[in-house]
Amino acid sequence: MVENSVERVENLKKGGEKMLGQYKATFDVKGRTSFPAKFREELGEHFYITMTLDQPCITVYSDKDWEDFMANLDAQPQIKVAAIRRRIVGNTYEAETDKQGRLVIPNPLREYACIETEATIVGLGKRAEIWSKQKWDEINSPGAIPNLVETAMELGL
Question: Which of 14, 15, 87, 123 has its CA 20 to 30 A from that of 5?
Answer without folding.
Answer: 123
